[in-house]
């Protein structure tokens, strides 16, 4: 009974936060959770240790739900619980009383029965309705104790029915997770130490015993127990043994389950048989034990006080056992379980001792090992040190040798250096001396050179001056000769010019017929050598003159006679003369008187006579002038002759100019 | 006159006549012209006299007269032109 209640509570404890969440969410989560819970149960049945451990710790919470215990809690620690073993456990539970004592408690029993029935019915109805109505669900889960668990369980069953695979899977998985979780949640050890609830609960039981008020306490405990005991049953009814067939026989199971889970660690085996026995007894003798338990309240099972409680495992075990003991005490079944609990105690003690022995042996072993290790280390260290020493000494010697060698080498090198430096110094000094010597020698040489130079200069000054004069004289002489050369050249040139001019003149005068004198002129021009005067003179000559030659004076006179006859024929012509006048003039001119000498007058006859005279005198110039004075037909007729005379005159003039130039040049030279 | 000019002419350049021979040349031309034209006139006159005037003499003389007159006029013109040229040149 107790177990069932505890288990249900545990299921609740697993998910306190989930309850607050929304319903749908809760539903799923709950399903998952629930999947675990039944699994745990299975395992518990299959001797899985996890499950059972929780009840130990959780049992404390179950009683805590009723209000009275908390008020009486004086916060005693684990020690108090341990110290309290002497106090009688909770006095005889009331539930058996009504059954047995019909006279006294008939009414009470009836009342309780009806109450329980009603409450069970109400609870069942509530659970059922909460599944239908959400609001009621919230209310129910929030305010009715165990309502949530019941509803969740139901939901879970439903879920399982719907999704058996999922449920199996979940169950399959969970156990492992649970194994890990439980130790953390169980907190049996430290709750005993710290938890107020656990302490309070235990202390309350002890104190009640100490205060000799068994009646009041047991009643409360009984009520709690009955409630818890019924819960699983109701649940079982509601579930209708779906998958959990073990539920119908919770009483038988729980005893078995309890022993296994408690020993999580090694000592579990030792305890398991010890503990398994008493619950089995209790199952059968529970009703019978009632009476004896009443009068020997002074012999409740002592809460276990293990000397080696320092060990956490042992402590846990002790705590567990103490819990069991307290429960038993509460139940008043100390008589029944006294022996087994005692045995368990003994076993526990043994376990403690064993653990201690193990510890000590392990410690010894460890110490030995440590010692060995330390020795090894020492040895190794010694070896190392000795080796190091050897190496060090060897190194030291080597270093010393090296150092000495190095010193020797350094010394030698420094000596060498010093020697070298000395050598250098000496060389330097010598070189310096040599340099000074050389400098002096150079100085002397320079001095000598300067002296010699001075002497030479002095010597030279006299002779050089004379030499300069000489060169000047020579230069002047050269100039002179050059000048004379020039003069000679010039004279030569002038002479040549003269010759050329003479040649031209000769060619002109010598000829009986007019002939070209171009060659002579060219020679003259060459000889003149670009003499501007000569050039100008030559340029003044009409090209036809030297190309064809000029007529001789005899020719000119001859021609003049012919011209004069013609001119005379036309001498009498008027301005606009026709055939008649011409004929008249030609005829009449025959009869004109001829003049002689330099006749005065502007008429044609006189001009002609004058010209003739001039020509006879050889004065070509004047003759030309006279002929130039003619006009009209006369002039036209005498035009050619005049041109001829002019040509001759030009040539003559040019020749004269050249001759004078030549003469001038020859004069210049003189 | 022709004798005097001829010897000088060949010696001189043939292209251009000597200045003193200018008038002579003109005279030569005039004379030749006269002869040709008068002879032409004579010929015409003769033909006319024979054909028209029953061999009378006067048509021949008239023809010569026409020819000579024509030649004279031409010569006169040429001389005057030459004189004008000379004037212009001067």
From TrEMBL, chain A:
Residues 45-101, 171-281 are annotated as: Disordered. The lineage of its organism: Eukaryota, Fungi, Dikarya, Ascomycota, Pezizomycotina. Residues 400-441 form a coiled coil. It is found in: Mitochondrion inner membrane. Pfam families: Mitofilin (PF09731). It is a single-pass membrane protein. The chain crosses the membrane at residues 108-129. This is MICOS complex subunit MIC60. Residues 267-280 have a biased composition (Low complexity). It comes from Chaetomium strumarium.
Automatic annotation (TrEMBL), chain B:
Component of the MICOS complex, a large protein complex of the mitochondrial inner membrane that plays crucial roles in the maintenance of crista junctions, inner membrane architecture, and formation of contact sites to the outer membrane. It comes from Chaetomium strumarium. Keywords: Membrane, Mitochondrion, Mitochondrion inner membrane, Transmembrane, Transmembrane helix. The keyword Transmembrane helix applies. This is MICOS complex subunit MIC10. The keyword Transmembrane applies. The chain crosses the membrane at residues 34-53. Component of the mitochondrial contact site and cristae organizing system (MICOS) complex. It is found in: Mitochondrion inner membrane. It is a single-pass membrane protein. It comes from the Eukaryota. Belongs to the MICOS complex subunit Mic10 family. GO terms for cellular component: MICOS complex. It holds the Pfam family DUF543.
